[in-house]
Design brief:
The chain is an alpha/beta fold and 565 residues long. The chain folds into two domains: 196 residues, Response regulator (Rossmann fold, 3-Layer(aba) Sandwich), CATH 3.40.50; 261 residues, TIM Barrel. It contains 21 helices and 19 strands. It has a seven-stranded mixed beta sheet with strand order 2-1-3-4-5-6-7, sandwiched between helices. A six-stranded parallel beta sheet has the order 10-11-12-13-14-15. The chain has a two-stranded antiparallel sheet with strand order 8-9. Helix 12 runs parallel beside helix 13 and helix 17 packs parallel to helix 19. The protein is globular, with a radius of gyration of 24 Å.
Length: 565
Protein backbone atom coordinates (compact mmCIF):
# COMPACT_ATOMS: atom_id res chain seq x y z
CA UNK A 1 0.00 0.00 0.00
CA UNK A 2 1.14 3.58 -0.70
CA UNK A 3 1.02 6.01 2.23
CA UNK A 4 1.64 9.73 2.01
CA UNK A 5 2.84 11.27 5.30
CA UNK A 6 2.10 14.96 5.65
CA UNK A 7 3.74 17.50 7.95
CA UNK A 8 1.26 20.39 7.71
CA UNK A 9 2.07 24.09 8.16
CA UNK A 10 1.22 25.97 11.34
CA UNK A 11 0.97 29.62 12.19
CA UNK A 12 3.91 29.62 14.63
CA UNK A 13 5.55 26.37 15.73
CA UNK A 14 8.55 28.07 17.24
CA UNK A 15 10.50 31.24 16.73
CA UNK A 16 13.97 29.81 16.17
CA UNK A 17 16.02 31.08 13.24
CA UNK A 18 16.12 27.59 11.72
CA UNK A 19 13.77 24.63 12.27
CA UNK A 20 14.58 20.92 12.39
CA UNK A 21 13.11 18.22 10.13
CA UNK A 22 10.02 16.58 11.57
CA UNK A 23 10.85 13.33 13.34
CA UNK A 24 7.24 12.06 13.42
CA UNK A 25 6.75 11.49 9.70
CA UNK A 26 10.30 10.08 9.45
CA UNK A 27 9.73 7.36 12.06
CA UNK A 28 6.26 6.53 10.74
CA UNK A 29 7.66 6.19 7.23
CA UNK A 30 10.39 3.88 8.49
CA UNK A 31 7.84 1.65 10.26
CA UNK A 32 5.66 1.36 7.15
CA UNK A 33 8.65 0.87 4.84
CA UNK A 34 9.88 -1.94 7.10
CA UNK A 35 6.46 -3.60 6.79
CA UNK A 36 6.77 -3.64 3.00
CA UNK A 37 4.72 -0.57 2.14
CA UNK A 38 5.74 2.40 -0.01
CA UNK A 39 5.82 5.83 1.61
CA UNK A 40 6.32 9.46 0.70
CA UNK A 41 6.93 12.37 3.06
CA UNK A 42 5.41 15.75 2.28
CA UNK A 43 6.92 18.55 4.38
CA UNK A 44 4.42 21.30 3.67
CA UNK A 45 5.60 23.37 6.65
CA UNK A 46 8.80 24.51 4.91
CA UNK A 47 7.02 24.93 1.56
CA UNK A 48 4.37 27.07 3.24
CA UNK A 49 6.73 29.29 5.22
CA UNK A 50 9.19 29.88 2.37
CA UNK A 51 6.83 30.13 -0.60
CA UNK A 52 3.11 29.47 -0.40
CA UNK A 53 2.24 31.79 2.48
CA UNK A 54 3.43 34.77 0.42
CA UNK A 55 0.74 34.06 -2.19
CA UNK A 56 -2.06 34.95 0.24
CA UNK A 57 -3.08 38.33 1.63
CA UNK A 58 -3.56 38.95 5.33
CA UNK A 59 -7.32 38.87 4.82
CA UNK A 60 -7.11 35.54 3.00
CA UNK A 61 -4.98 34.02 5.75
CA UNK A 62 -7.57 35.19 8.24
CA UNK A 63 -10.31 33.48 6.23
CA UNK A 64 -8.34 30.21 6.20
CA UNK A 65 -8.40 30.38 9.99
CA UNK A 66 -12.15 31.06 10.08
CA UNK A 67 -13.82 27.97 11.50
CA UNK A 68 -17.31 28.76 10.24
CA UNK A 69 -16.12 29.34 6.67
CA UNK A 70 -13.97 26.19 6.63
CA UNK A 71 -16.75 23.98 8.05
CA UNK A 72 -19.20 25.37 5.51
CA UNK A 73 -16.76 24.50 2.72
CA UNK A 74 -15.86 20.96 3.82
CA UNK A 75 -19.51 20.02 4.50
CA UNK A 76 -20.60 21.24 1.05
CA UNK A 77 -22.81 24.06 2.30
CA UNK A 78 -20.76 26.54 0.29
CA UNK A 79 -17.84 26.61 -2.13
CA UNK A 80 -15.05 29.01 -1.23
CA UNK A 81 -12.79 29.95 -4.14
CA UNK A 82 -9.90 30.75 -1.81
CA UNK A 83 -9.97 27.25 -0.35
CA UNK A 84 -10.14 25.75 -3.84
CA UNK A 85 -7.04 27.76 -4.79
CA UNK A 86 -5.20 26.61 -1.67
CA UNK A 87 -6.11 23.00 -2.41
CA UNK A 88 -4.92 23.23 -6.01
CA UNK A 89 -1.54 24.55 -4.83
CA UNK A 90 -1.07 21.69 -2.38
CA UNK A 91 -2.64 18.87 -4.35
CA UNK A 92 0.06 18.59 -7.00
CA UNK A 93 1.77 15.28 -7.61
CA UNK A 94 5.22 16.76 -6.96
CA UNK A 95 4.03 17.95 -3.53
CA UNK A 96 1.52 15.21 -2.62
CA UNK A 97 2.03 12.12 -4.79
CA UNK A 98 -1.01 9.90 -5.15
CA UNK A 99 -1.42 7.32 -2.40
CA UNK A 100 -3.91 4.88 -0.89
CA UNK A 101 -3.86 6.61 2.50
CA UNK A 102 -2.93 10.12 3.59
CA UNK A 103 -1.56 10.41 7.15
CA UNK A 104 -1.25 13.86 8.72
CA UNK A 105 0.83 14.44 11.84
CA UNK A 106 -0.56 16.97 14.31
CA UNK A 107 2.86 17.46 15.96
CA UNK A 108 3.13 20.79 17.81
CA UNK A 109 -0.51 21.57 17.27
CA UNK A 110 -1.55 24.90 18.73
CA UNK A 111 -5.16 25.67 19.38
CA UNK A 112 -4.56 28.39 16.79
CA UNK A 113 -6.78 27.13 13.97
CA UNK A 114 -4.52 27.68 10.93
CA UNK A 115 -2.94 24.23 10.97
CA UNK A 116 -6.20 22.41 11.70
CA UNK A 117 -8.05 24.27 8.96
CA UNK A 118 -5.40 23.82 6.29
CA UNK A 119 -5.54 20.09 7.11
CA UNK A 120 -9.33 20.09 6.85
CA UNK A 121 -9.30 21.97 3.52
CA UNK A 122 -6.62 19.65 2.14
CA UNK A 123 -8.45 16.54 3.40
CA UNK A 124 -11.64 17.74 1.71
CA UNK A 125 -9.81 18.08 -1.61
CA UNK A 126 -8.19 14.65 -1.26
CA UNK A 127 -11.54 13.01 -0.51
CA UNK A 128 -13.22 14.83 -3.41
CA UNK A 129 -10.54 14.46 -6.10
CA UNK A 130 -8.64 11.33 -5.08
CA UNK A 131 -11.32 9.59 -3.00
CA UNK A 132 -8.88 8.26 -0.41
CA UNK A 133 -9.09 8.08 3.40
CA UNK A 134 -7.40 10.49 5.82
CA UNK A 135 -5.86 9.68 9.21
CA UNK A 136 -4.62 12.24 11.73
CA UNK A 137 -2.54 11.61 14.82
CA UNK A 138 0.19 12.53 17.27
CA UNK A 139 0.98 10.81 20.55
CA UNK A 140 0.91 13.78 22.95
CA UNK A 141 -2.54 15.11 22.04
CA UNK A 142 -5.27 13.98 24.49
CA UNK A 143 -7.76 11.42 23.34
CA UNK A 144 -10.59 13.82 24.19
CA UNK A 145 -9.13 16.46 21.87
CA UNK A 146 -9.09 14.01 18.97
CA UNK A 147 -12.70 13.09 19.67
CA UNK A 148 -13.64 16.76 19.51
CA UNK A 149 -11.79 17.19 16.22
CA UNK A 150 -13.50 14.13 14.72
CA UNK A 151 -16.91 15.41 15.87
CA UNK A 152 -16.46 18.96 14.62
CA UNK A 153 -14.56 18.25 11.39
CA UNK A 154 -16.37 15.41 9.58
CA UNK A 155 -13.66 15.09 6.92
CA UNK A 156 -11.16 12.93 8.81
CA UNK A 157 -11.66 9.16 8.73
CA UNK A 158 -9.34 8.07 11.54
CA UNK A 159 -7.63 9.70 14.52
CA UNK A 160 -4.80 7.84 16.29
CA UNK A 161 -4.35 8.74 19.96
CA UNK A 162 -2.00 5.89 20.84
CA UNK A 163 1.44 6.40 22.36
CA UNK A 164 2.60 3.85 19.81
CA UNK A 165 1.34 5.43 16.61
CA UNK A 166 3.37 3.13 14.37
CA UNK A 167 1.41 0.03 15.41
CA UNK A 168 -1.90 1.86 15.27
CA UNK A 169 -1.19 3.08 11.76
CA UNK A 170 -0.16 -0.39 10.61
CA UNK A 171 -3.48 -1.68 11.96
CA UNK A 172 -5.35 0.90 9.86
CA UNK A 173 -3.38 -0.12 6.77
CA UNK A 174 -4.19 -3.77 7.46
CA UNK A 175 -7.88 -2.92 7.81
CA UNK A 176 -7.88 -1.03 4.50
CA UNK A 177 -6.19 -4.08 2.94
CA UNK A 178 -9.06 -6.29 4.07
CA UNK A 179 -7.82 -7.60 7.40
CA UNK A 180 -10.31 -8.12 10.21
CA UNK A 181 -7.72 -7.43 12.93
CA UNK A 182 -8.88 -4.75 15.40
CA UNK A 183 -7.72 -1.16 15.30
CA UNK A 184 -5.51 0.04 18.15
CA UNK A 185 -6.34 3.18 20.16
CA UNK A 186 -7.94 4.84 17.17
CA UNK A 187 -11.16 6.75 16.51
CA UNK A 188 -12.87 5.57 13.33
CA UNK A 189 -15.66 7.24 11.39
CA UNK A 190 -18.11 4.53 10.38
CA UNK A 191 -21.65 4.88 9.01
CA UNK A 192 -21.97 8.37 10.44
CA UNK A 193 -20.77 7.36 13.89
CA UNK A 194 -17.40 7.78 15.61
CA UNK A 195 -16.20 4.44 16.93
CA UNK A 196 -13.58 4.32 19.69
CA UNK A 197 -11.30 1.33 19.18
CA UNK A 198 -9.73 1.19 22.64
CA UNK A 199 -7.59 -1.94 22.25
CA UNK A 200 -4.28 -1.00 23.88
CA UNK A 201 -1.03 -1.27 22.02
CA UNK A 202 1.79 -3.38 23.38
CA UNK A 203 4.96 -1.92 24.86
CA UNK A 204 6.27 0.83 22.60
CA UNK A 205 9.76 0.50 21.18
CA UNK A 206 11.89 3.55 20.41
CA UNK A 207 11.31 4.19 16.70
CA UNK A 208 14.00 4.79 14.11
CA UNK A 209 13.72 7.48 11.40
CA UNK A 210 13.87 7.29 7.64
CA UNK A 211 14.72 10.76 6.36
CA UNK A 212 13.71 11.38 2.77
CA UNK A 213 16.43 13.17 0.81
CA UNK A 214 14.21 15.74 -0.85
CA UNK A 215 12.87 16.70 2.60
CA UNK A 216 16.11 17.06 4.54
CA UNK A 217 17.86 19.01 1.80
CA UNK A 218 15.50 21.89 2.66
CA UNK A 219 17.06 21.95 6.12
CA UNK A 220 20.69 22.28 5.01
CA UNK A 221 22.10 25.69 5.92
CA UNK A 222 25.54 27.17 5.31
CA UNK A 223 27.33 29.07 8.06
CA UNK A 224 26.76 32.31 6.16
CA UNK A 225 23.02 31.59 5.90
CA UNK A 226 22.88 30.94 9.64
CA UNK A 227 24.87 34.06 10.51
CA UNK A 228 22.77 36.23 8.18
CA UNK A 229 19.71 35.63 10.34
CA UNK A 230 21.45 37.17 13.37
CA UNK A 231 23.10 40.40 14.47
CA UNK A 232 26.51 39.60 13.06
CA UNK A 233 27.75 42.67 11.18
CA UNK A 234 30.96 43.09 13.20
CA UNK A 235 34.52 42.63 11.85
CA UNK A 236 35.52 40.26 14.68
CA UNK A 237 32.51 38.03 13.99
CA UNK A 238 32.95 38.13 10.22
CA UNK A 239 36.48 36.77 10.62
CA UNK A 240 34.98 33.54 11.95
CA UNK A 241 33.35 32.96 8.55
CA UNK A 242 36.62 32.44 6.66
CA UNK A 243 35.46 28.92 5.90
CA UNK A 244 31.78 28.67 4.96
CA UNK A 245 30.62 25.16 5.87
CA UNK A 246 27.28 23.38 5.47
CA UNK A 247 25.13 22.36 8.42
CA UNK A 248 22.46 19.68 8.71
CA UNK A 249 21.08 18.86 12.15
CA UNK A 250 18.81 15.81 12.36
CA UNK A 251 16.57 14.74 15.28
CA UNK A 252 17.12 11.21 16.60
CA UNK A 253 15.99 9.17 19.60
CA UNK A 254 17.37 6.02 21.22
CA UNK A 255 15.20 5.83 24.37
CA UNK A 256 11.79 7.20 25.27
CA UNK A 257 11.33 5.41 28.60
CA UNK A 258 12.87 6.73 31.81
CA UNK A 259 13.89 4.92 35.03
CA UNK A 260 13.47 8.14 37.01
CA UNK A 261 10.53 8.56 39.36
CA UNK A 262 9.91 12.30 39.02
CA UNK A 263 6.40 12.89 40.32
CA UNK A 264 5.38 15.42 37.66
CA UNK A 265 6.46 13.35 34.63
CA UNK A 266 4.02 11.32 32.55
CA UNK A 267 6.76 8.81 31.69
CA UNK A 268 5.92 5.64 33.64
CA UNK A 269 9.13 4.44 35.30
CA UNK A 270 7.52 1.04 35.96
CA UNK A 271 8.00 0.21 32.28
CA UNK A 272 11.20 -1.59 31.27
CA UNK A 273 13.73 0.41 29.30
CA UNK A 274 13.23 0.58 25.55
CA UNK A 275 16.74 1.90 24.89
CA UNK A 276 18.08 0.56 21.62
CA UNK A 277 21.23 -1.59 21.78
CA UNK A 278 24.33 0.60 21.56
CA UNK A 279 25.42 -1.21 18.38
CA UNK A 280 22.09 -0.34 16.72
CA UNK A 281 22.39 3.31 17.74
CA UNK A 282 25.92 3.52 16.31
CA UNK A 283 24.76 1.90 13.07
CA UNK A 284 21.84 4.32 12.75
CA UNK A 285 24.04 7.31 13.54
CA UNK A 286 26.42 6.15 10.81
CA UNK A 287 23.43 6.16 8.46
CA UNK A 288 22.58 9.75 9.42
CA UNK A 289 26.19 10.75 8.81
CA UNK A 290 25.97 9.17 5.35
CA UNK A 291 22.95 11.40 4.70
CA UNK A 292 25.14 14.41 5.41
CA UNK A 293 24.27 15.14 9.04
CA UNK A 294 26.75 17.40 10.81
CA UNK A 295 24.83 17.51 14.08
CA UNK A 296 22.37 15.37 16.01
CA UNK A 297 19.51 16.77 18.07
CA UNK A 298 18.86 13.84 20.41
CA UNK A 299 15.28 13.60 21.66
CA UNK A 300 15.61 11.18 24.57
CA UNK A 301 14.18 11.16 28.06
CA UNK A 302 17.87 11.59 29.00
CA UNK A 303 21.18 10.68 27.39
CA UNK A 304 22.48 9.22 30.65
CA UNK A 305 19.54 7.26 32.04
CA UNK A 306 21.97 4.35 32.38
CA UNK A 307 25.57 5.24 33.22
CA UNK A 308 27.32 2.32 31.48
CA UNK A 309 25.08 2.63 28.43
CA UNK A 310 25.93 6.33 28.07
CA UNK A 311 29.63 5.59 28.54
CA UNK A 312 29.58 2.80 25.95
CA UNK A 313 27.72 4.99 23.48
CA UNK A 314 30.22 7.84 23.92
CA UNK A 315 33.12 5.44 23.44
CA UNK A 316 31.51 4.14 20.26
CA UNK A 317 30.92 7.63 18.87
CA UNK A 318 34.54 8.52 19.59
CA UNK A 319 35.86 5.27 18.12
CA UNK A 320 33.90 5.65 14.88
CA UNK A 321 34.94 9.30 14.55
CA UNK A 322 31.46 10.55 13.70
CA UNK A 323 32.62 14.08 14.52
CA UNK A 324 29.01 15.06 15.23
CA UNK A 325 28.15 17.89 17.54
CA UNK A 326 25.04 17.00 19.49
CA UNK A 327 22.63 18.08 22.21
CA UNK A 328 20.36 16.12 24.53
CA UNK A 329 18.64 16.07 27.89
CA UNK A 330 20.72 14.78 30.80
CA UNK A 331 19.97 13.98 34.44
CA UNK A 332 21.94 14.62 37.60
CA UNK A 333 21.42 11.10 38.94
CA UNK A 334 23.78 9.14 36.70
CA UNK A 335 26.62 11.57 36.21
CA UNK A 336 30.20 12.34 37.19
CA UNK A 337 33.28 14.09 35.80
CA UNK A 338 34.34 11.01 33.84
CA UNK A 339 31.03 10.74 31.98
CA UNK A 340 30.88 14.48 31.28
CA UNK A 341 34.41 14.34 29.85
CA UNK A 342 33.41 11.43 27.60
CA UNK A 343 30.24 13.24 26.48
CA UNK A 344 32.32 16.25 25.52
CA UNK A 345 34.81 14.10 23.56
CA UNK A 346 31.89 12.42 21.82
CA UNK A 347 30.60 15.81 20.65
CA UNK A 348 28.23 17.09 23.33
CA UNK A 349 27.71 20.81 22.74
CA UNK A 350 24.60 21.42 24.83
CA UNK A 351 23.07 19.46 27.73
CA UNK A 352 19.61 20.17 29.11
CA UNK A 353 19.28 19.43 32.82
CA UNK A 354 15.80 19.15 34.30
CA UNK A 355 16.18 20.69 37.75
CA UNK A 356 12.60 22.01 38.04
CA UNK A 357 13.11 23.66 41.45
CA UNK A 358 15.94 24.68 43.77
CA UNK A 359 13.92 24.04 46.91
CA UNK A 360 15.52 21.10 48.81
CA UNK A 361 12.08 20.21 50.19
CA UNK A 362 10.45 20.17 46.77
CA UNK A 363 13.33 18.21 45.21
CA UNK A 364 12.61 15.41 47.71
CA UNK A 365 8.85 15.78 47.27
CA UNK A 366 9.02 15.40 43.47
CA UNK A 367 11.59 12.56 43.81
CA UNK A 368 14.16 14.27 41.62
CA UNK A 369 17.01 12.04 42.79
CA UNK A 370 19.55 14.85 43.09
CA UNK A 371 20.60 17.33 45.75
CA UNK A 372 21.35 21.03 45.37
CA UNK A 373 25.05 20.43 46.10
CA UNK A 374 25.30 17.72 43.43
CA UNK A 375 23.49 19.85 40.87
CA UNK A 376 25.80 22.81 41.56
CA UNK A 377 28.90 20.62 41.36
CA UNK A 378 28.23 19.06 37.97
CA UNK A 379 26.66 22.16 36.51
CA UNK A 380 29.91 23.98 37.29
CA UNK A 381 32.04 21.14 35.91
CA UNK A 382 30.00 20.93 32.71
CA UNK A 383 30.54 24.67 32.21
CA UNK A 384 34.25 24.34 33.01
CA UNK A 385 34.84 21.82 30.22
CA UNK A 386 33.00 24.01 27.72
CA UNK A 387 29.49 22.50 27.50
CA UNK A 388 26.54 24.86 26.98
CA UNK A 389 24.22 24.33 29.96
CA UNK A 390 20.45 24.47 29.57
CA UNK A 391 18.36 24.37 32.78
CA UNK A 392 14.66 23.56 33.05
CA UNK A 393 12.47 25.03 35.78
CA UNK A 394 8.77 24.67 36.64
CA UNK A 395 6.76 27.36 38.39
CA UNK A 396 4.07 26.54 40.93
CA UNK A 397 4.72 22.89 41.85
CA UNK A 398 2.10 21.29 44.14
CA UNK A 399 2.58 22.50 47.73
CA UNK A 400 5.03 25.16 46.52
CA UNK A 401 5.33 28.20 48.79
CA UNK A 402 6.88 31.63 48.37
CA UNK A 403 9.92 30.29 50.26
CA UNK A 404 10.35 27.55 47.64
CA UNK A 405 10.05 30.07 44.81
CA UNK A 406 12.65 32.31 46.44
CA UNK A 407 15.02 29.33 46.72
CA UNK A 408 14.81 28.83 42.94
CA UNK A 409 15.36 32.54 42.32
CA UNK A 410 18.38 32.50 44.65
CA UNK A 411 19.87 29.48 42.85
CA UNK A 412 19.54 31.21 39.48
CA UNK A 413 21.27 34.35 40.73
CA UNK A 414 24.12 32.35 42.29
CA UNK A 415 24.72 30.16 39.23
CA UNK A 416 24.35 32.62 36.37
CA UNK A 417 27.86 31.97 35.09
CA UNK A 418 27.16 28.24 34.77
CA UNK A 419 23.75 28.49 33.05
CA UNK A 420 23.36 29.56 29.42
CA UNK A 421 19.75 28.76 28.47
CA UNK A 422 16.57 28.38 30.51
CA UNK A 423 13.29 26.60 29.98
CA UNK A 424 10.47 27.72 32.25
CA UNK A 425 6.96 26.33 32.29
CA UNK A 426 3.92 26.76 34.51
CA UNK A 427 3.18 23.51 36.34
CA UNK A 428 0.74 21.16 34.60
CA UNK A 429 -0.68 18.00 36.12
CA UNK A 430 -0.54 15.31 33.45
CA UNK A 431 -2.52 12.05 33.45
CA UNK A 432 -0.11 9.17 33.84
CA UNK A 433 2.24 11.06 36.15
CA UNK A 434 2.81 9.83 39.72
CA UNK A 435 1.13 13.04 40.90
CA UNK A 436 -1.97 11.88 39.02
CA UNK A 437 -1.73 8.11 39.55
CA UNK A 438 -0.92 8.39 43.27
CA UNK A 439 -2.54 11.72 44.01
CA UNK A 440 -3.41 10.88 47.64
CA UNK A 441 0.20 9.93 48.35
CA UNK A 442 1.29 13.42 47.28
CA UNK A 443 -1.49 15.20 49.12
CA UNK A 444 -3.55 16.08 46.06
CA UNK A 445 -7.27 15.81 45.39
CA UNK A 446 -8.14 15.43 41.71
CA UNK A 447 -11.03 17.49 40.38
CA UNK A 448 -12.15 15.96 37.08
CA UNK A 449 -13.94 18.29 34.71
CA UNK A 450 -17.66 17.52 34.86
CA UNK A 451 -18.60 19.12 31.54
CA UNK A 452 -17.17 18.86 28.05
CA UNK A 453 -14.33 21.31 27.53
CA UNK A 454 -13.11 23.01 24.38
CA UNK A 455 -9.60 21.85 23.48
CA UNK A 456 -9.57 24.03 20.38
CA UNK A 457 -10.07 27.37 22.11
CA UNK A 458 -7.10 28.20 24.27
CA UNK A 459 -3.78 30.03 24.25
CA UNK A 460 -1.93 26.78 24.97
CA UNK A 461 -0.75 23.99 22.72
CA UNK A 462 -3.26 21.18 22.49
CA UNK A 463 -1.95 18.62 24.97
CA UNK A 464 -0.33 21.06 27.40
CA UNK A 465 -3.39 21.51 29.58
CA UNK A 466 -3.34 20.85 33.30
CA UNK A 467 -5.70 18.54 35.11
CA UNK A 468 -7.40 20.34 37.97
CA UNK A 469 -6.55 19.54 41.57
CA UNK A 470 -6.72 20.79 45.15
CA UNK A 471 -3.93 20.51 47.71
CA UNK A 472 -4.85 18.67 50.90
CA UNK A 473 -4.69 21.31 53.62
CA UNK A 474 -3.52 23.83 51.03
CA UNK A 475 -4.82 25.71 48.04
CA UNK A 476 -7.98 24.94 46.11
CA UNK A 477 -7.63 24.86 42.32
CA UNK A 478 -8.89 28.41 41.78
CA UNK A 479 -6.20 29.69 44.14
CA UNK A 480 -3.58 27.26 42.91
CA UNK A 481 -3.84 28.25 39.27
CA UNK A 482 -3.22 31.88 40.25
CA UNK A 483 -0.25 30.84 42.40
CA UNK A 484 1.21 28.76 39.53
CA UNK A 485 1.16 31.82 37.30
CA UNK A 486 2.59 34.09 40.02
CA UNK A 487 5.44 31.68 40.79
CA UNK A 488 6.28 31.28 37.11
CA UNK A 489 6.23 35.03 36.60
CA UNK A 490 8.51 35.58 39.61
CA UNK A 491 11.10 33.10 38.30
CA UNK A 492 10.86 34.56 34.79
CA UNK A 493 11.48 38.03 36.20
CA UNK A 494 14.70 36.90 37.87
CA UNK A 495 15.93 35.22 34.69
CA UNK A 496 14.95 38.24 32.62
CA UNK A 497 16.75 40.71 34.89
CA UNK A 498 19.89 38.63 35.31
CA UNK A 499 20.24 36.79 31.98
CA UNK A 500 17.63 38.32 29.68
CA UNK A 501 14.32 37.02 28.40
CA UNK A 502 16.00 36.10 25.13
CA UNK A 503 17.63 33.15 26.92
CA UNK A 504 14.31 31.59 27.96
CA UNK A 505 13.22 28.84 25.52
CA UNK A 506 15.49 29.94 22.64
CA UNK A 507 18.17 27.36 21.86
CA UNK A 508 19.68 28.78 18.63
CA UNK A 509 21.08 25.28 18.09
CA UNK A 510 22.26 25.88 14.51
CA UNK A 511 24.23 28.98 15.45
CA UNK A 512 25.60 27.28 18.56
CA UNK A 513 26.87 24.21 16.70
CA UNK A 514 28.35 26.38 13.96
CA UNK A 515 30.32 28.40 16.52
CA UNK A 516 31.49 25.31 18.40
CA UNK A 517 32.74 23.78 15.16
CA UNK A 518 34.78 26.88 14.38
CA UNK A 519 36.01 27.73 17.88
CA UNK A 520 35.80 24.55 20.01
CA UNK A 521 34.83 23.82 23.61
CA UNK A 522 37.91 25.55 25.00
CA UNK A 523 36.58 28.85 23.63
CA UNK A 524 33.22 28.73 25.42
CA UNK A 525 33.73 32.18 27.08
CA UNK A 526 34.27 33.67 23.61
CA UNK A 527 31.31 31.73 22.21
CA UNK A 528 29.17 33.12 25.02
CA UNK A 529 30.20 36.69 24.15
CA UNK A 530 29.51 36.13 20.45
CA UNK A 531 26.13 34.50 21.18
CA UNK A 532 25.14 37.47 23.33
CA UNK A 533 26.00 39.89 20.52
CA UNK A 534 24.50 37.89 17.68
CA UNK A 535 21.22 37.02 19.40
CA UNK A 536 20.58 40.66 20.22
CA UNK A 537 18.38 40.40 17.15
CA UNK A 538 17.50 37.49 14.91
CA UNK A 539 15.08 36.54 12.18
CA UNK A 540 12.80 33.55 12.94
CA UNK A 541 12.50 31.13 10.04
CA UNK A 542 8.85 31.99 9.45
CA UNK A 543 9.47 35.76 9.39
CA UNK A 544 11.01 38.25 6.96
CA UNK A 545 12.00 40.66 9.74
CA UNK A 546 14.31 40.68 12.75
CA UNK A 547 13.13 40.35 16.35
CA UNK A 548 14.94 42.17 19.12
CA UNK A 549 12.33 42.70 21.83
CA UNK A 550 11.83 39.21 23.30
CA UNK A 551 9.29 38.80 26.09
CA UNK A 552 8.36 35.76 28.16
CA UNK A 553 4.60 35.29 28.45
CA UNK A 554 3.82 31.66 29.29
CA UNK A 555 2.53 32.77 32.69
CA UNK A 556 -0.32 34.50 30.86
CA UNK A 557 -1.66 31.26 29.37
CA UNK A 558 -5.13 30.17 30.39
CA UNK A 559 -5.05 27.51 33.08
CA UNK A 560 -8.64 26.27 32.79
CA UNK A 561 -10.15 25.02 29.56
CA UNK A 562 -13.19 26.84 28.31
CA UNK A 563 -16.49 25.01 28.20
CA UNK A 564 -17.83 23.97 24.82
CA UNK A 565 -20.47 26.29 23.46
Amino acid sequence: MKINFIYPPANIRNSEAFPLPNLSIAVLANALNSAGHKTFQADIEMLWQKDLKKLFSRGELKLISDKKAVLSHITGESKEALFERLSSLLLKDKILPRADLYAITFADMDADPLMLHICAILAHAIKKLRKKPIVIGYRTIPKEAYKQIMEEYPIFDYAVYSQDGEKSLLAIVDKLSGSKAPLIETFERKNGFIIDNEKSSSFAITPSPFYQNNVIKKYIASDSEIFSRYNWDYPAIKKILKKDERNLILPYSFETTCPGACAFCSNNNNQPSNAKPVAQVLEELAGLKALGATGIYFINSAFNNHYKYALDLCNGMIKHKFNFFWSDCANMREIDENLLDKMKRAGAVKLTFGMETASPRLLKYIRKGATISKIKKYLAYSNKIGIWNHMEFIGGMPTETEKDTRATAKFIKENLNNINVYSLNPFSLYPGSPFYRDSKKFGLILRPEEQDVDYLKSDEKVGNFSERFDEVGGMKWNEKTVQIMASTEAIAKVIGLKAGDKWIDFEHIHLLMSLYRKLGHSQKPLIKKIMDIMTYKFKPYHCDFFLSDINYNKHNYRRVLEKKA
